[in-house]
Structures are given as structure tokens and as C-alpha cells.
Amino acid sequence: MLKFFSITIITILFTLGFFSFCFAKPNIGEGTGIVGNTAGYDVKNVNEKTLSATVGKVIEAVLAMIGTIFFALTVYAGLLWMTARGKDEQVEKATKIFQTSVIGLVIVVGAYSITHYVLKAVFAVSAIN
């Protein structure tokens, strides 16, 4: 039992050690500054405490939480499957958990991608006019 936990901890540490964290944030003032100037607003005082920055931080936190939940469900389903010992019910449960977590992740990433594309297109059209 101790050997299992030590191997698990070493594996997790190696896995997390090889990933580099990406702090990707869109430049909020890039598209909205052009739109604001065109509309006649003063955008010089726009900073990280604006509504769009706050909403962006909330969305970033929610997406990080969803990614963590997906990872935990995938590991849980994998452990269920590996420890099934020939029990078909447990294999089916693990398969169902994995399938639903992948479907959920695809829906979230798809919704984010569509929203990002639509907003980028709207800001591009607004900047031209």
C-alpha cells in the first residue's frame, strides 16, 4: 500500500513538473479601445478594474476549475477501470464517467471558442466602421 502511494505521488510530481503554466490573457484594451474611441469615449483611464477585466478573470477561473474537474474525473474513471477486476458494472461505470466528462469538456471548449470567434468578429466590424 505504501509503495502504491509513493509511486502515485512521484508520478504526480513528475507530471506537474514537466508542464509549464500558461497565463494567457487577451489584451482587453486592444479591440475595445478602438471601439471606445470611435464611439467618442475616453479610454485612457481603462485599467484592470473595469467590468470587462473582471468578467475575464471570472471566466478564466471558471475554465481553470472545469479543467481541474475534468482531470479529476478522468483519473477517477481510470482508477475505477484499472481496479475493476473483471466486474462489468464497474467497467461500465468508469466508461460512462469518462464519456460524460469528455462530452462536458467538448461542450465547454466549443462554447468558449464560438463566443471568442463571435466577439472577435463583432469587434473587427465595429473597428472598421
List the helices and strands and how they pair.
Elements lengths: L1 H17 L9 H12 L11 H32 L5 H41 L1
Overall pLDDT level? 78
Which consecutive residue ranges, at least 5 long each, have pLDDT under 50?
none
Major beta-sheet overview: none
Strand content: under 5%
What is the total number of structural domains?
Answer: 1
Net shape: elongated
Listing every helix as H and every strand as E from the N terminus to the C terminus, the arrangement reads HHHH
- N→C terminal distance: 67 Å
What would you call the structural class? mainly alpha
Rounded Rg = 22 Å
Helix run count: 4
Share of helical residues? over 70%
The total strand number stands at 0
